[in-house]
Structure to design on (194 residues):
């Protein structure tokens, strides 16, 4: 049986393919998203967040298979760790493949990737058949948006579409770990956003 909001996810997928920037609920905070290959949309998000492209952005997908093409060389054990951890609220910094544009990876030979368990993120990425950009919905120095009201206060009409839905039960933005070193870059409880 189809998800009751499949029609909405298909509409959001079409909007993303047309270059729109969306806001959508994730496990812990509202996110801003677009297609990673659409540089003008990525640039809009960076401008909204007052963030340099050099810092990089997160890609979020619905399955390991969906994000696998964005991951460079990793070991069988590292692949197994990703598959055991995902879907879930942990973002991994992984070696980037040639498929990842510089405006996503920033000044790094790695890219931040997560497979989300959130039904809205899953639905959007399933309809698209690919991952999207995922970054916390907040201008630099402000707390990530936890409600549609906060989104509207921060961004007014700069967001093309707000996908209805509820935040998951996580407190704050996702944890970020470096896959190769195991280092925790950002703990899950920090509210600074990505």
């Amino acid at each position: 049986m189809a998800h009751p909001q499949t029609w909405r996810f298909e509409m959001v997928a079409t909007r993303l393919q047309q270059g729109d920037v969306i806001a959508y609920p994730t496990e812990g905070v509202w996110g801003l998203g677009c297609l990673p290959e659409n540089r003008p949309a990525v640039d809009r998000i960076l401008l909204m967040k007052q963030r340099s492209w050099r810092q990089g952005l997160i890609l979020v997908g619905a399955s390991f298979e969906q994000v696998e093409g964005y991951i460079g060389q990793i070991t069988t054990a590292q692949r197994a760790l990703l598959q055991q951890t995902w879907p879930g609220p942990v973002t991994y910094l992984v070696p980037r493949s040639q498929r990842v544009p510089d405006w996503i990876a920033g000044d790094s030979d790695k890219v931040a990737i997560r497979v989300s368990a959130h039904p809205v993120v899953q639905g959007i990425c399933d309809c698209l058949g690919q991952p999207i950009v995922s970054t916390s919905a907040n201008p630099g120095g402000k707390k990530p948006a936890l409600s549609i009201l906060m989104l509207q206060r921060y961004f007014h009409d700069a967001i093309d579409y707000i996908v209805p839905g509820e935040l998951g039960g996580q407190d704050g933005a996702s944890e970020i770990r470096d896959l190769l070193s195991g280092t925790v870059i950002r703990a899950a409880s920090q509210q600074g956003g990505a």
Observations:
- Confidence is low (pLDDT under 50) at residues 190-194.
- Residues 81 and 179 are 9 Å apart (CA to CA).
- Strands lie at 22-25, 30-33, 58-61, 90-95, 110-115, 132-136, 161-162, 175-178, 184-186.
- Residues 6-186 form a domain with the DHBP synthase fold (CATH 3.90.870.10).
